[in-house]
Structure formats: C-alpha cells, structure tokens
Specification:
The protein is of the alpha/beta class and 365 residues long. The chain has eight helices and 15 strands. It has helices at residues 96-109, 130-140, 153-156, 162-169, 204-211, 226-237, 267-274, 315-318; strands spanning 28-30, 35-37, 47-51, 54-58, 79-84, 117-120, 147-149, 176-180, 183-187, 245-249, 280-284, 291-295, 298-302, 338-344, 350-356. The chain has a seven-stranded mixed beta sheet, with no helix packed on it. Bound molecules: fe (ii) ion (FE2) (2 copies). One fe (ii) ion binds at residues 123, 152-153, 250, 286.
C-alpha cells in the first residue's frame, strides 16, 4: 500500500495512529518500590484491545508486579480510574492535538472494566479562549466515564479561571475533595501563581502568555498558597490516617526544576500535611513525561501528556528520580505520549500503569 503522507491535507490523519501500547518490555509502576518495572513477560500481555486502527496492549491490573504500597486495613473497595492530562487542544491552530486526545479517549472507553472515573489534570487547552474551551468540550464529551477536572495554567490565566471553573470544575473553588469507595480524593489547584500582572499592567493576553511559558521567570513560582493549604489541613483532619489518599494536582508537589517551573514553592507545607497518612499517591501533570519520585510515604507520579513530550530537566538525575521513556520520534504523531490508569485495591494498596504510546508495537513473542 502506498504510504500516506500526514502533511497532505487530504490524508486522514487518524490513519497514522500506530499500533500503540506500553513500551516494549512493559512499564508498570510498582507502588511498593516507587519505581517503574519493565519486566513484563508473555503472560503479562494477556489482553489486546483493538481500537480502530490502534492496539492497546495492557497487562492485567492484577499482574504479579502490581502492588503493594503500605497496605492498610481499610474499608476501601476495589476500583479503577484513569488519568488524562495536558492535551493543549488549540482548535484549528493545531488539529493534531485533537487526534491525540481522541486516541486516548478511544482507549479509555474500551477499558474493561470501565474506570469509575477519569481525572483530567489540566492544560486542557493552550490559550485560554472560550473558542478553544468549546472545541475541547466537544472532544472530551466523547469520554464515557464521569470526568473530574482540575486546572492547569493554560486553562486559567486569560480570564483567571472563570470559564474553566464554571463549565468544567463546576465548583466554587478550583480545589475540592470527595470520598470514593473508601478512598479519599483531593484535587488541588497546583498552578496557582502570585499576582505578577497588576503592577506591570499586563493585558489578559500578556498574562496568559507569560504564565503559559514554562521558562519565563516573570511568572514566579507556582504555589498552593495559604488559603488552599488551610483548606487541605481542615479537609484532611476528618480523614482516618489509614485511608488511601489520592492527590491530584496539575504541577508536581515537590521541587523538581525551577527554571521550567516544574515546582511548587510551598512543597514542605503540603508534604507535611500528607505525611501522617499511610498511603499517599500524588498524580501530577505539567511535566509531559514519565517521572516517579518518593518522599517518605508520599509517591509522586508524573503523567504523560497527550499533546507533546517534554525532555527531562538537568535535575532529573541529581534528584534521583525514576522513570523511562524512549526519545520521542518527531515523525510519529503519537510517540512519547499517553495516559495513565490506576487501581485502588480493597486492602488499600494503590498501583498505576502508564499507557505509553511508542513507535514500536509491543512485542508479544
Ligand atoms: Fe502542559
Ligand atoms: Fe502546565
């Protein structure tokens, strides 16, 4: 067959969706060791789901590599969830972002069992405009499971969150909590910034541009801020310490790399609030690559983006961080991207799996 050229406008772009799946050899997060294991054997690839031109190969969540972080005798019931992040949809400015997000949606919709919910970790769109939000809303409406949203900086700094709060988060504040089958879930506003625009008399567009440029020092560091920290403290005060805690934030809740604002200024404060809990899993976005970290009992999992991958910063090795992904091939529309799914077991153990799209189809032999 004559190869299709994705740069020709008459080429149906989704024909370029490759056979996608986990990296050859597998990439499964082991909560007990805070590391990615790459030990899948033939038995690990038991299930292949055909997805309209794409093939998602997953290991069963009850795989021998799953689990076990600090296991608590909780009242938690088994459930699964999915994590989507950083789709940066731009409307016709870059329609490829739509194809990538739709690929993830198709895969999530095909999961069996279906996840109880999807947590969307922010940077849904790129420029904060109502037009881009409407475009994104039409795409994300294709997800079958219920979706919870939290904001990234690209969703927030044009209108200071007005549209996103009203149409997506649908709550009075950008941070909130809920209880689900014995687990406590908190969704945070990790992309909060101190006011850098008023004194400089910046327009909303200028503010959005600076906040959305990771290496623009004019935005200052991300921080949760006192009001949010006070709310977290109050919220967690009523939660038993052996309850599995799932924390979702756009930005990492530790100090990863300041020059690109992969960073939270009040890291010690939030970590101190999470420390008393037996099992704490923090899922964050913003970094656009796989990264795993552990501080005490707190496990941090960086989410894959569906838009584009970012390289690892200089501090990646000096911080002793873990995670692997192949160098993304710019000729492949889906390489180095993906999403996550996670499982909370009745015993309170939490595992997750990174669905990393790669150029090479997964090997089953
Ligand atoms: Fe992003
Ligand atoms: Fe971001």
């Amino acid at each position: 067959m004559k190869p299709l050229d994705p740069h020709k406008s008459d080429a149906p772009l989704d024909r370029f969706l490759p056979s996608v799946g986990v990296a050859p050899g597998g990439a499964l997060f082991d909560g007990s060791r805070a590391m990615l294991t790459r030990q899948w054997t033939r038995r690990g690839f038991l299930r292949a789901v055909a997805l309209g031109g794409a093939t998602l190969v997953t290991a069963p969540l009850a795989s021998p590599f799953g689990v076990t972080s600090a296991v608590a005798a909780t009242g938690a019931q088994d459930f699964t969830f999915a994590v989507l992040a950083d789709s940066h949809t731009m409307g016709n400015r870059n329609p490829v972002m739509k194809l990538r997000l739709e690929a993830a949606i198709r895969q999530i919709n095909a999961l069996n069992p279906a996840p109880d919910f999807v947590m969307y970790l922010g940077d849904a769109i790129h420029d904060g405009t109502p037009e881009q939000f409407k475009y994104f809303a039409e795409i994300i409406a294709g997800l079958k499971p219920p979706v919870y949203f939290l904001a990234g900086e690209h969703d927030w700094y044009l209108d200071m969150g007005e549209y996103y709060l009203d149409r997506f988060i649908r709550r009075p504040a950008p941070y909130y909590s809920l209880d689900h089958k014995g687990a406590h879930i908190i969704a945070l506003h990790g992309s909060n910034l101190n006011d850098f625009w008023t004194v400089r008399r910046l327009t909303p567009e200028e503010r959005m541009h600076i906040a959305g440029t990771v290496n623009d020092i004019g935005q200052g560091p991300f921080l949760l801020g006192k009001a949010q920290l006070d709310w977290i403290e109050k919220d967690l005060a009523k939660v038993p310490k052996d309850t599995p805690l799932l924390v979702f934030s756009h930005t990492p809740l530790y100090r990863y790399f300041r020059p690109w604002n992969l960073w939270i200024e009040d890291a010690e404060e939030i970590q101190a609030l999470l420390k008393p809990f037996k099992t704490v899993q923090v899922f964050h976005a913003h970094v656009h690559h796989l990264v795993e970290h552990a501080i005490g009992n707190i496990r941090f999992h960086g989410a894959l983006a569906t838009s584009w991958p970012h390289p690892y910063p200089d501090t990646y090795h000096t911080l002793g961080l873990q995670g692997q992904m192949p160098r993304s091939n710019p000729a492949n529309l889906f390489d180095g991207l993906g999403w996550q799914r996670g499982k909370v077991a009745a015993r309170g153990a939490v595992t997750h799996e990174d669905i990393l799209w790669t150029l090479a189809p997964p090997s089953i032999s």
